[in-house]
Specification:
Elements: H1 7-40, H2 48-80, H3 98-126, H4 129-152, H5 175-202, H6 213-218, H7 222-250, H8 269-297, H9 300-323
Length: 324
């Protein structure tokens, strides 16, 4: 161990992980909700207002991805230091309109900067210079995020109006249907957190040991191969999460904020593979059920979306299966 640390120090770093996961989910769901809001806006200029929402939506998506990268980098450092990374996020705040999106983002970034100043101070006390430098870099990026939200705090654009009556074709989308779609959303969030944490753990020094001549020659081992595979799968799960959230909001539902089941990381490469295999198996069963229900309701758009997602989930299943 290059640095001697305490459990309290790891707990402090895990607060940063929980915060990064929180805002990543927050910004992703706000980005997804914008499409719904745009359709309810009575624009003075039919071209300008949707363009404004599109622009801010892209900003939120960009920030969400950056925050998830921060979470991954911090998780990697925690494992390097011999700690265990959390898979629990602080509770996101979504909001109902653009002003609330910007205000909640601004508040979240202010809280982050305060926490990261504390971590930078503590890292200096421990002589943990790599962690200190990591958080100085993240701090600079979070400060940029803060200024971005600050620029839009006083934004003045048309807000949604509930003027149009609910269409008859949407009456079939009842609470049970939204609960089913939200199971898929919660499953995707669980997979995202699980796979990014496993990816970083599989990259940790304890997993990088070379034990055979072939591993020495190729400068790789099974853990590194699995780590690379997890990164690819994780990116696809992020895409699934975004699509499902957008569909829920489009149908006038509300998105769940919590992962379900709770993400599980595992203590070895074999456990990582088994847990991934199990998660994909459960997702496939769930998504087949959603496709059946969507077909019954004549919701062809949702049916086609989940058919495409299901194909990728089956690919993930076989990727894990190949190594078991």
């Amino acid at each position: 161990m290059s640095v001697k640390i305490t459990s309290e120090y790891i707990e402090l770093l895990n607060k940063a992980v929980a915060r990064e996961l929180q805002v990543s989910v927050q910004y992703f769901l706000q980005h997804a909700k914008i499409e719904k809001i745009m359709r309810k806006v009575k624009a003075e200029n039919i071209l300008l207002d949707p363009t404004t929402y599109d622009q801010i939506g892209q900003i939120l998506k960009k920030l969400a991805i950056e925050e998830m990268k921060h979470a991954g980098a911090i998780v990697e450092r925690i494992y390097y230091l011999g700690g265990e990374a959390t898979t629990k996020a602080f509770k996101p705040k979504i909001g109902e309109n653009m002003q609330e999106f910007m205000q909640y983002g601004f508040e979240a970034e202010e809280e982050a900067l305060e926490l990261y100043r504390e971590i930078i101070r503590e890292a200096g006390k421990f002589g943990d210079y790599d962690t200190k430098e990591l958080f100085r870099k993240i701090y600079r990026e979070e400060e940029e995020h803060l200024y971005t939200f600050q620029e839009y705090l006083t934004i003045n654009i048309s807000e949604p109006e509930e003027t149009a009556p609910k269409s008859e074709w949407r009456e079939v989308f009842d609470n049970d249907y939204f609960a089913l779609l939200n199971k898929a959303l919660a499953s995707e969030l669980s997979a995202i957190i699980q796979y990014i944490t496993q990816h970083e753990k599989a990259s940790a020094i304890n997993f990088r040991k070379k034990e055979t001549p072939l591993e020495v020659i190729t400068n790789s081992n099974k853990a590194q191969v699995i780590s690379d595979m997890l990164k690819k799968i994780f990116m696809q799960e992020m895409d699934h999460y975004e699509k499902i959230a957008e569909r829920i909001y489009m149908l006038d539902g509300e998105c769940t904020l919590d992962p379900d089941p709770l993400p599980k990381v595992g203590e070895s490469v074999e456990e990582i593979l088994k847990l991934g295999h199990q998660a994909e198996d459960e997702a496939i069963v769930l998504y087949r059920k959603i496709i059946t229900e969507a077909t019954k309701k004549g919701d062809i758009t949702t049916k086609k979306m989940f058919e495409e997602i299901l194909m990728e989930e089956e690919e993930h299943y076989w990727m894990f299966d190949d190594y078991l």
